[in-house]
Amino acid sequence: MAETGYDDRDGWIWLDGKMVPWREANTHVLTHALHYASAVFEGERAYGGRIFRSREHSERLHNSGRLLDMPIPWSVDEIEAAKAEALEANGLEDAYVRVLAWRGAGPDMGVASARNPVRMAVAAWPWGAYYGDARLRGAKLDISRWKRPSPETIPSHAKAAGLYMICTMSKHEAEAKGCSDALMLDYRGYVAEATGANIFFVKDGEVHTPLPDCFLNGITRQTVIGLLKERGIPVHERHIRPEELDDFEQCWLTGTAAEVTPVAEIGPHRYEVGDLAREMVDAYDALVRS
């Protein structure tokens, strides 16, 4: 039996200020974002009816729009209200929430799109563990041939749709090899992140994580750094060379979708799903549900 597509579901989606039936939340084929990736988004999780660090996500959406020269016409408060409305309309308490803002169809259909309206949608649906049972046994990562670009070439601190193209390609290649995801290096050759999650390593009881100077400093990443520091565990945010991957004992990924997921393999490198990784899984789970 074929899996139901995301376009063919019961429910409601908040679209441009009103709730519309799920299957009717459509946009025109000449939407600017479809042709030129003029879109920004947020992925969020609700636990027990409360979206974790919701307002920070809404503020980041606004900032992403600003970085793409695409001012979002809804205020942070209005975005917060739209998310609450989408959860309520769908009767959801534990859910993934996707907020998307994009340049719609209008008088511009070339690269420039200043005259086209900015539209916004909020959808929410139940979504389990992003990496399946990897939270127990550890994820397996490929090493991508694509690199995170220089901040001189992209708005690297925007959560923008177009920046995920090489992530999609990297994850497809990884899945074809039987992996859950791929580790990406940056344009200088330093360890950066996975395709949609930040990465942490453990060595001698201390934690090392790449400096987010050319990729998104994730909200979950920031949360986990806070949890580590509360426990008095040293955290080193620094450039990590690929040659160091053999030196680490534990590894995990962080992200709204990934939450905290231990990593068992990165290419030829092996890691234990150790005590600190498990502690971070439990600590994050407790925090988001507190």
Description:
With 290 residues, this protein is an alpha+beta fold. It has two domains: 12-125, D-amino Acid Aminotransferase, Chain A, domain 1; 134-288, Alpha-Beta Barrel (D-amino Acid Aminotransferase, Chain A, domain 2). Helices cover 26% and strands 30% of the residues. It is built from seven helices and 15 strands. It has helices at residues 32-36, 54-67, 76-89, 134-137, 165-176, 219-230, 275-288; strands spanning 12-15, 18-21, 39-47, 50-51, 95-103, 118-125, 139-148, 181-186, 191-194, 198-203, 206-210, 235-238, 250-255, 259-266, 269-270. Strands 7, 8, 9, 10, 11, 12, 13, 14 and 15 form a nine-stranded mixed sheet that branches. Helix 2 (54-67) packs across helix 3. The mean pLDDT is 96.
CATH fold group of the largest domain: D-amino Acid Aminotransferase, Chain A, domain 2
Number of domains: 2
CATH architecture of the largest domain: Alpha-Beta Barrel
Give the C-level CATH assignment of the largest domain. Alpha Beta
**Tally of extended strands?**
15
End-to-end separation? 39 Å
The string of secondary-structure elements, in order, is EEHEEHHEEHEHEEEEHEEEEH
Structural class: alpha+beta
Determine the number of helices (DSSP H or I, runs of at least 4 residues): 7
Low-confidence stretches: none
CA radius of gyration = 19 Å
Approximately what portion of the residues adopt beta-strand conformation? 25-35%
The oligomeric status of these chains comes to single chain
Mean pLDDT: 96
General form: globular
Let me know the CATH homologous superfamily of the largest domain.
D-amino Acid Aminotransferase, subunit A, domain 2
* Fraction in helix: 25-40%
Largest sheet: 9 strands, mixed
